[in-house]
Amino acid sequence: MDSSSLLPKSNAKWTERQRRLLTEIANDFTVSTEKLETLTQQFVHQMRLGLSTHDPQELAMIPTFVTGRPDGHERGSYLALDLGGTNLRVCLITLKGNHQLETHQKAYTVSDYLQQADVAELMDFIAASIKEFIYSEHISSKIVEHPSGSDTLELGFTFSFPVSQTAIDAGTLLRWTKGFDCPGAVGNDIVMLLQLALDRNDVNVHVAALINDTVGTALAHSYSHSNTFVGAIFGTGTNGAYLEDTRNIKTMTLDSNDMFINTEWGNFDKGKNCLPVTIFDNKLDRESINPSFQIFEKMISGMYLGEITRNVLLHLIDHRALFDGASSTQLNMHSAFEAKFMSVIEADDSESLNRTARVLERYLDIHLSTQTDREIVKLVCQLVGTRAARLSAMATAALIRQGLEAGSLRNQGYPLKTSLHSEESVDQNGNGDASRPPLHVAIDGSVFEHYPHFEERMYDALVEVLGKHAKDVVKLGIARDGSGVGAALAALIATKSVTNSR
Ligand code: BGC
């Protein structure tokens, strides 16, 4: 991608200084095709390292104990719990078979206080919310089938933080992300902490499964799209999981053929060795709650995109290249510029950028922007947003490349490039196998769903890394509410395997 194509024609009313600064910034934020390729190779290398050792690696590559995928015929009623940000969702999912399901759900707000409170307090809040949901929604009358045969409700818990799993219903928290920092959780078993809180609060619920939201998203999508290979989140945070051949998981011996691996890709390139990290990213990282962690997440996800943009805008203001050198109290505040403003600005196709002017006035207290100011603000959003989409595609492509070169997609004849130097995988006639079913990538998250052009920018980069057939073979699809439905499916998988082994 050529960043200069985003800069205005030389007859535009930009000063020399504006043009010079913006050219520098555009260069810093541009991820070329060659860079995408280098990053993909490095990513695959890190995946393999993470799969081969117990020593902590930048990509944790966590075995999830979720083997196999649902096929849409599963039945039963399960509770699902989804905690990954400021909202806690409690759901009752009724799987009806034939790819049909029904959901009842209620959201509860996890206050700023609770996000930093002792973990026992957080878990008591969760238990109380489940209790309230069961009573207020008359859940017992809606159950069509009690999976365990007793009147205990089985629950799947989507917990969207890095957890080292030891079984489908056990796992210890490695670290908090996304602004959470509750003492007493890191190093402890999340299922046990929740089960204790449920028992303490007399809630007759059994925690049957613990999963990451990426795995939930993949499972939920599988219920309606067979051949779902990747589950990814591009929202407040980011992460991806994929189906790995268990022979590649050197850290354990397993009976099954395939297992979902939670890559925890937000921590890719922890040492900042290959990502195109700018001074604006470094500033954000330094001021964050978890400096030096989740570097990749901080370049991609909704929690951070606005802050990177704000850092760039302040730099331009300080160089008198924007708003005549004047900021506002609002724009000077940490996190004041949100990713949702970028969405509005990027979607603003009006000639005088009216909607951009409105965002600047209403939310940032900047009342006197010129046309050039607004063009610059839009350009900065485009640069930050495009980089995020291209890096998101790179990580997705790396998971697919690992599957094609060494994992569960090997020998399946997909017409995709597996590395820069290899020819595309083609059959004897020089074509890819057109009869192959598409490879589904299940995606949830506000950035993918709402950020303008994110999906098409991802597809462009996928083609650059995986070759021209990528657009036909790889299907990026929204899996809304993957966390809820996926948790229920994981609870089903867990209870069925317990019943089967009895
Ligand atoms: C967490 C992941 C999660 C992702 C998306 C990241 O901050 O570390 O576990 O999957 O956010 O919610």
UniProtKB/TrEMBL annotation:
<keyword id="KW-0547">Nucleotide-binding</keyword>
<dbReference type="Pfam" id="PF00349">
    <property type="entry name" value="Hexokinase_1"/>
</dbReference>
<dbReference type="GO" id="GO:0006006">
    <property type="term" value="P:glucose metabolic process"/>
</dbReference>
<keyword id="KW-0067">ATP-binding</keyword>
<dbReference type="InterPro" id="IPR022673">
    <property type="entry name" value="Hexokinase_C"/>
</dbReference>
<dbReference type="Pfam" id="PF03727">
    <property type="entry name" value="Hexokinase_2"/>
</dbReference>
<keyword id="KW-0808">Transferase</keyword>
<dbReference type="GO" id="GO:0005536">
    <property type="term" value="F:D-glucose binding"/>
</dbReference>
<comment type="similarity">
    <text>Belongs to the hexokinase family.</text>
</comment>
<feature type="domain" description="Hexokinase N-terminal">
    <location>
        <begin position="22"/>
        <end position="223"/>
    </location>
</feature>
<dbReference type="InterPro" id="IPR022672">
    <property type="entry name" value="Hexokinase_N"/>
</dbReference>
<dbReference type="GO" id="GO:0004340">
    <property type="term" value="F:glucokinase activity"/>
</dbReference>
<dbReference type="GO" id="GO:0005524">
    <property type="term" value="F:ATP binding"/>
</dbReference>
<comment type="pathway">
    <text>Carbohydrate degradation; glycolysis; D-glyceraldehyde 3-phosphate and glycerone phosphate from D-glucose: step 1/4.</text>
</comment>
<dbReference type="InterPro" id="IPR043129">
    <property type="entry name" value="ATPase_NBD"/>
</dbReference>
<dbReference type="GO" id="GO:0008865">
    <property type="term" value="F:fructokinase activity"/>
</dbReference>
<keyword id="KW-0324">Glycolysis</keyword>
<dbReference type="InterPro" id="IPR019807">
    <property type="entry name" value="Hexokinase_BS"/>
</dbReference>
<dbReference type="InterPro" id="IPR001312">
    <property type="entry name" value="Hexokinase"/>
</dbReference>
<dbReference type="GO" id="GO:0005739">
    <property type="term" value="C:mitochondrion"/>
</dbReference>
<dbReference type="GO" id="GO:0006096">
    <property type="term" value="P:glycolytic process"/>
</dbReference>
<dbReference type="GO" id="GO:0001678">
    <property type="term" value="P:intracellular glucose homeostasis"/>
</dbReference>
<dbReference type="GO" id="GO:0005829">
    <property type="term" value="C:cytosol"/>
</dbReference>
<keyword id="KW-0418">Kinase</keyword>
<protein>
    <recommendedName>
        <fullName>Phosphotransferase</fullName>
        <ecNumber>2.7.1.-</ecNumber>
    </recommendedName>
</protein>
<feature type="domain" description="Hexokinase C-terminal">
    <location>
        <begin position="230"/>
        <end position="492"/>
    </location>
</feature>
